[in-house]
Design goal:
14% strand; globular; alpha/beta; 154 residues; two-stranded parallel ribbon; three-stranded parallel β-sheet
Length: 154
């Protein structure tokens, strides 16, 4: 994943991360711990020539009914405003159904990667009412998704 993000950066793409972090609201970890996790990620990316241009997180629990927690679109819309981009031109990559719902709901081009929770998400989509949003692309991993994005942009 680190190399794939670096490749996006080197190909002229900006990378933003939108993540639910309900562990904060549930008292499982504090902001210092979350910041340490993010710092570690930023350092690891820098070692391979990559970066995250913006990091958005929702610290709320599912029952807080906020507008930022995926599958709601608040964080994704904030990213669009931050970068002054039309979200219809933005790829949203995730491994969870709620990620794809947020991306599609905000107008992005949703991509499911099979890593992480992705295989489970794909299996649920085939065997339940949790169908993938229309036009969702599916790739084995982030590297494969990035190759597709770069090829489409060329």
């Amino acid at each position: 994943s680190l190399d794939a993000i670096a490749l996006l950066n080197q190909s002229g793409f900006r990378v933003a991360l939108a993540t639910n972090q309900s562990g904060i609201a549930r008292g499982l970890f504090d902001m210092a711990t979350l910041n340490a996790i993010h710092d570690k990620m930023h350092r690891a990316l820098a070692l391979v020539g990559g970066r995250i241009d913006a990091l958005f997180y929702c610290p709320h629990a599912a029952d807080d009914h906020c507008d930022c927690r995926k599958p709601k679109t608040g964080m994704i819309e904030d990213i669009g405003r931050r970068f002054s981009v039309d979200l219809k031109e933005v790829y949203g990559i995730g491994d969870a159904y709620r990620d794809l719902q947020a991306f599609a709901g905000a107008g992005c081009k949703p991509i499911l990667v099979k890593t992480g929770k992705g295989e489970e998400t794909l299996a649920q989509a085939k065997n339940s009412d949790k169908q993938l949003p229309k036009n969702t692309l599916v790739f084995d991993d982030l590297a494969q998704a990035v190759q597709h994005i770069i090829a489409k942009d060329s």
